[in-house]
Amino acid sequence: MAQKANVLVVEDEQKIRTALADFLEFHDFAVVQAVDGLEAQRIVRDKKFDLILLDLMLPKISGEQLCAKWRQEGLQTPVIMLTAKGQEKEKIAGLELGADDYITKPFSLEELLARVKAVLRRTDPGRAVGKIFKFGDVDVDIAALTVRCDKKEIEISRREAQIIQFFAANPNRAISREELYEKVWGEEMSEFGTRTTDMHIAKLRSKIEKNTNEPQIIKTVRGTGYKYESG
Ligand code: CA
Asked: What is the CA(199)–ligand 1 centre distance, in A?
């Protein structure tokens, strides 16, 4: 049986928090609840989540501050911000601080479920290919965030794991930078996006390719982007 996705719900309003938790549990998620930012911080220190639903307006430490702090500390768990109507500015700030999506209150639970699933798909696009698999001549362990080649074990970032998963799920096909950026980062292509994808591919190649001048796993497709060649 597939493992349940772990979701942390951070919301001070008891009614909303309970409703969210019940609904997500009903839909087969494992849910932990936090009533404020400090509790959320404590919980996240001890347990790994697949997704965090984070209310913006929280006592003690706000959702915004918390999200910024987590990203500074390198936490890469996807975050969906829960905002109230009219908090447009905060939404934008939230996305800049590293939230993956936001949803405006009042929202329907079905709408929330669709967002949750979309973010999980986007941040783990290669779910179907399994947790440990071969990528070229490299063994990739997605859960541990490591790659192993020539008996060396190298750590990879969550983003690098997402890139590998995306290529693994789309072998033998030229992938444009645009598509890569949109599917893995979940954002529309921009000048910044082009640089971001190139930088990440270069770094990933340095970890998995024997010779980065002649990459054999993630090949360059001139004028287009990249291609993962699978035997
Ligand atoms: Ca609140």
From this structure: 38
